[in-house]
Input
Amino acid sequence: MFLENSFKFRTDYISCIITLRLFFIIQSFNFDSMSDLIITKKKPTYPINPFLMDYLDLYSRSYQMPVFYDDLLRFSGSVAVMNKHDQDSLWVRVFYSDSERREIDEQLKSIYALLHSDGRAMTIPYLNVDAIDYCTFGNSKPFRVKIRNTLNDNFIYFYVKKADASRVYGLELEHMLSPNNLNFLVYKNTLIEEHIAGIPGDEFIKDFLPKCSKSERNQIAKSFVKFNERCMIRLLGDMRSYNYVIVPIHDFDKVIYKIRAIDFDQQCYEGNLKIYRPQFFKENLAMVMLVKEHLTKTSIDQYKIEERATIARRILGNETRLTHLLKCMLNDHISKPEKIQQLRQEVYKLTKQASFKKSKSMGDIMRASFHFVKRNYENHEMLRVDN
Output
């Protein structure tokens, strides 16, 4: 009995220590409440307005396509797709009648040619549609299309989704302000989006992170700090661990880990500023602990400054195109008035910049954010040159 009580005491003590440790880590990153970040209501789909469509035409993002999202909804049956652990992946493989499948296959191969080539039909005979999967989870409910080249058995994925203005803005901002280029096409109510390769964040945290060396953990912590800063500046929300991927890049003497967003539904929609900071989601707690254990405050501040400077240079390098996109956002409704009011107040409280307080739309807040980052970068550059 004494041994049982002693063991129970030790177990409770260890559990208490772990709980306290997590509490102090959370407090050190200024968490108020994890439950505040639960998104309980589904974001509405916002149509693409004429200003944004003109922008997409100008920058070759819009092409007339042979198939629409609604056409793929006419499937006659489906089976669950299981992951490598034999668990439900929340995707289903869909099937069509023979006559419809032949037509849909040809249309999807034409879309592949538009997305990854110049649209010529010469490559189509060597392509095969291996699978069409439908996701029952999330806002966009996408179709995932697997295209295989019959000449060499290489395959690639792309997605067919409902066109949503929030997602299009998110994709364009990612293309201009992140280290990654993105390829997508829009036609009427249909969005075609290329696949972003990488290890899903939740899977990486569970299966790969425990095996990483100390130097690799340092590098991942650095990437997460920069990713966190980038999401906040360009107002990309809901970056839980399953909404981004980890991309390992093998250098000649090490592995570099990059973090890429893969879900852009929550671009400039929510009013809570914490939604735009991945560090505040409980799904990312393992990454927060990594930062806490491997980086000093000085290092964290250094990486934040580096990321802001990098984004400022990208803003300057894409100024014409970015200004055009912001004009579209200024003439668009992609959020609710109460969310806009909440966000502008929270950003003003953080920066003390009057331009945020005067913002009347998400486009205003986004423009003020870019001006703030760019102005601080240019002022610092001027001081550096004068010295």
In short: Residues 50-194 form one domain.
